[in-house]
Amino acid sequence: MPTRIRIWGIVEAARRGDRASRAFDILILTLIFLNVLAVIIDSVESIRMRWGAQFDAFETFSVIVFTLEYSLRIWACTVDPRFRKPITGRLRFMSHPMPIIDLLAILPFYLPFLGIDLRSLRVLRLFRIFRIAKIGRYYSSLTLIRHVIKSKKEELVLTTVLMGLLLVVSSSVLYYCEYPVQPQVFSSIPATMWWAVATLTTVGYGDMYPITPLGKTCASVIAILGIGMFALPTGIIGAGFVEAIDKRRNQTRVCPHCGKLVDADD
Amino acid sequence: MPTRIRIWGIVEAARRGDRASRAFDILILTLIFLNVLAVIIDSVESIRMRWGAQFDAFETFSVIVFTLEYSLRIWACTVDPRFRKPITGRLRFMSHPMPIIDLLAILPFYLPFLGIDLRSLRVLRLFRIFRIAKIGRYYSSLTLIRHVIKSKKEELVLTTVLMGLLLVVSSSVLYYCEYPVQPQVFSSIPATMWWAVATLTTVGYGDMYPITPLGKTCASVIAILGIGMFALPTGIIGAGFVEAIDKRRNQTRVCPHCGKLVDADD
Amino acid sequence: MPTRIRIWGIVEAARRGDRASRAFDILILTLIFLNVLAVIIDSVESIRMRWGAQFDAFETFSVIVFTLEYSLRIWACTVDPRFRKPITGRLRFMSHPMPIIDLLAILPFYLPFLGIDLRSLRVLRLFRIFRIAKIGRYYSSLTLIRHVIKSKKEELVLTTVLMGLLLVVSSSVLYYCEYPVQPQVFSSIPATMWWAVATLTTVGYGDMYPITPLGKTCASVIAILGIGMFALPTGIIGAGFVEAIDKRRNQTRVCPHCGKLVDADD
Amino acid sequence: MPTRIRIWGIVEAARRGDRASRAFDILILTLIFLNVLAVIIDSVESIRMRWGAQFDAFETFSVIVFTLEYSLRIWACTVDPRFRKPITGRLRFMSHPMPIIDLLAILPFYLPFLGIDLRSLRVLRLFRIFRIAKIGRYYSSLTLIRHVIKSKKEELVLTTVLMGLLLVVSSSVLYYCEYPVQPQVFSSIPATMWWAVATLTTVGYGDMYPITPLGKTCASVIAILGIGMFALPTGIIGAGFVEAIDKRRNQTRVCPHCGKLVDADD
Questions:
Q1: Which chain A residues touch D204 with a CB distance below 8 Å?
Q2: Could you give the CA distance from residue D21 to residue A10 in angstroms, rounded to a whole number?
Q3: Is residue C143 part of a domain?
Q4: What is the CATH number of the domain that holds B210?
């Protein structure tokens, strides 16, 4: 059992001072980083031609390491009181988001052996990138950013809903304006939504744009409203940061009546 | 009369605990949502070809429900003391923005029966989407966003006016720069306004752009000034959120030790 | 003399309660507004063809009114103690920005009579639009926006200087990257500046873009740095608004030691 | 030795009241400014044709002045206690960023004499522009901006890391969506990154864009997430400015009536 505790301590995020665990974390993160790099570079035809074998070898090596790590994690997770039961505990552990990502990142490699060969599943290899999220724990500012986004969650969701409404209305309006003149371009409302997204986010590729005076007038109003799509979330997040900083400072706030500390969350 | 009161309670926004009214709200909102979806999907040629009849049937069904709801609302509105008088009260109720939207959303369906058949009026079906505004009441953060925008209304209106001025000046300047060289593209000031909107909002479709050195220089200055079009409203709204949060906190700030109010300004 | 004082009171911005002056202001502003509208609409070829004579008549009428107003202003300005001297006082008044704009807006009309006929000077008619700045005085929120921009002037100027540096560096770098491959497009550093402005302001027309891998890599870094061009001024202006609001509130701030009011500007 | 101290005083940034040093600073800055201007204008083919000789002469003159200045700086730097030792002290001085920039800016001129003639090294002349950073010291608001960016460094670095992750994920996803249909355009993940940068920064050149429905849907989500790329840094920097201003004010806030410090947190 102590071996299992030690293994669990190593495969899980490193506690301060646990050198072996820290080294393991760095090793895995480096491997993830190299994997992401490999996926990116491997997509270049000319490189794939020349170094394909090497990339495949590295892929095999990586999957073996990741499989080993995944197995160790599953084997040792019973150390955690939440996953104590040998089977149901392990299954519960496996159904957490991080282990699922870990599994999805190694699964596509094994599928061909099971007779399933979907090259499109190779895209799942990219899931490894999300494991970088692990590094997050080492940064306190990520906590701040996450805290701010969390505390403003409702406002941000609402902004997204407003965006969605604006998107639907703008693409419908533009569709009715432009369809009669450019039936190939503004062919349907869903097709026009692509234009609406490009306009409201101010990306503006230029593959679709209105040509009728009415369409241009409506599009102008929509583009200007699109500014709100930047102003609202930016204002909300900015206020969230100010608030978070205020709160932190106020933790030393003293009541002027009794002289005691006013709790941060009053 | 009690029936009318009950009906009014149901067709109006649900009060806490009124299950029938809540269910009715959800039903209507679901129907609105499905209608918006139908309008969007129905615009795709290939889907329209195959499922046109079904979409028309659903449209008929929806209009019947909405007409029924509208009639009930008109019939029952006399319960509200503001619309107590049978005729003038009802007319006053009907002239409110929400009932007008409700009417506009069902009217196009009946016009052909009256001998008027303007297919372009079908666009009015989209008005139904605005009825989604009803959900707004369930979110307190919408109140916050609305409050912030309202409290900064004057500044935001002014920013819009400044934008308008900038728009007129930029399109006039660019017209005088580019018209002699690209008379087909920068054909008039109103036509150049389309360019100015695309530039000031940083959308930049690329269908119109200056080619003369002078035009490019002016356009550069205009594009940089366009940044202010993001900075001003964003700054105003951000400050509004900070202010709103400050106010809310200061109103209820009580020292947890002595129970006295920590003064808003201390 | 009392006539002159009365005239001066009328032609200058209206004081509260001075109805004649208010009416005069509204008349002039309406005329300015119609003039701007005329300049815009008049630029449309087809309208110019049909209504050219009417537009010219309106132009003549406007210039007569503006000339009259300008003359009255010059004649009456000696009422103001600053411009008391008949000649030097009037000249000093005429050298202020607003009267210069007024003059530039009417001058092009008279030049043909003096033998000078530069159609390009017609653009000066647009100067009339700046006279709309007059309305500004009626809005207190313009004062706030102006106050915020003024108080943050140094930071905003510096941001503009940083933008300028970034502009020069980016266009030089891209020129050296892309010139060998696209000598027609990235033909010189000044020509590349047009690209740099379009990229840093995120307008992105698409008339110029790098095609070499090195150029694309540099352009990516530049585009990401361009985000700072929005973040810095927005942050500065946002903080300025928060500060301005804080100051206003603090005007009622009480010192906790002696209980007296702490002055707003301490 | 006193000559050396005087020279050091002159070549280094001017202290208040040191007129000779101030004049020297202005001279060098003007020369830098003219050099940058020359590099820019010299890149225009037609100007290069006609004024090439003059530009070369100016270049030679500038390099002589900069070489002289650099030599004087190296010779006199031993005055500073940090670089007191004749050889190691000077080497340490030379390895500072500013002297390195100074060297890189003059080096390309001398390389041809050493038998090395890389025209591409001419780009190094642009390094002179960074010497403009010197002016920075005269502006207190640059200190504020630098302070804010520094105090928010960790958050901004993190935002950049998040951007990087988003960039990798978006370009991989779009590559897998679009490669089968547009193998020439979305040819590899690194090639797709160019699209991802243009979309996330909302530049949107329009040289690459998805055409498949799945690609467009993914691109829409990515473009909307791109708004966060503006909202996060803007919010962070905005909060930094608010905080910096708050701190400054609170440090010096004294009640004007009783003279006591109004505590920062009260």
A1: 198, 202-206
A2: 61
A3: no
A4: 1.10.287.70
- Chain B residues in contact with D206 by the CB 8 A cut-off are 205-206
| Domain final residue pick, B80, B103, B138 | B138
Residue C266: band (very low, low, confident or very high) from pLDDT cuts 50, 70, 90: very low
- Within the 199-228 window of chain A, which residues sit less than 8 Å (CB to CB) from chain B? 199, 202-206, 209, 213, 216, 219-220, 223-224, 226-228
**Residues counted in chain B:** 266
To test the contact with chain B by mutation, choose from A157, A245, A257 the residue with the greatest count of B C-beta atoms within 10 A, namely A257
Q: Is D138 on the interface with C (CB under 8 A)?
A: no
Residue D250 pLDDT level (bands cut at 50, 70, 90): low
Residues A19 and A95 in one domain: yes
Chain D hits for B235, CB-CB cut-off 8 Å, are 238
Using CB atoms, which residue from C44, C139, C242 is nearest to B188? C44
pLDDT tier, B209 (very low <50, low <70, confident <90, very high otherwise) = very high
pTM: 0.84
In whole angstroms, what is the distance from residue A199 CA to residue A228 CA?
12
A113 & A157 share domain: no
pLDDT mean over D106-133: 70
Does residue D117 have a pLDDT over 70?
no
Whether complex ipTM tops 0.95 = no
Here the CATH number for the domain that contains residue A54 is: 1.20.120.350
The answer to whether B189 contacts chain C (CB < 8 Å) is yes
Same domain flag for B259 and B163: yes
Q: Is B260 on the interface with C (CB under 8 A)?
A: no
| Rg of the Cα atoms in chain A | 26
Give the residue from A156, A234, A237 with the most B CB atoms within 10 Å of its CB, the best one to mutate.
Answer: A234
Residue C119 and residue C8 share a domain = yes
Domain count, chain D: 2
Residues A132 and A45 in one domain: yes
Asked whether residue B24 falls in the same domain as residue B51, the answer is: yes
Range of the domain at B110: 2-138
Q: Taking CB atoms and an 8 Å limit, are D206 and B205 in contact across chains?
A: yes
Cβ contact, residue pair D205, B206, below 8 Å: yes
Residues of A in contact with B254 (CB under 8 A): 266
| Domain end among D138, D165, D195 | D138
List CB contacts (< 8 A) between A168 and chain D.
none
Tell me, yes or no, whether D170 and D258 share the same domain: yes
pLDDT, one tens digit per residue, over C175-186 is 988 988 999 999
Q: Are B78 and B84 in contact (CB under 8 A)?
A: yes
Q: How confident is the model at residue A265 (pLDDT cuts 50, 70, 90)?
A: very low
Is C146 among the domain residues?
no
The answer to whether residue B48 sits within a structural domain is: yes
Rounded Cα distance, B143 and B123, in Å: 30
Separation CA D152–CA D140 (nearest Å): 19
Residues D84 and D185 grouped into a single domain: no
Residue to mutate among A46, A227, A234, A254, with most C CBs inside 10 A, is: A234
Question: What mean pLDDT is predicted for residues A119-129?
Answer: 67
* Domain-embedded: residue A235: yes
How many angstroms separate the CA of residue A7 from the nearest CA in chain D? 30
Q: Which chains touch B (3 or more CB pairs under 8 A)?
A: A, C, D
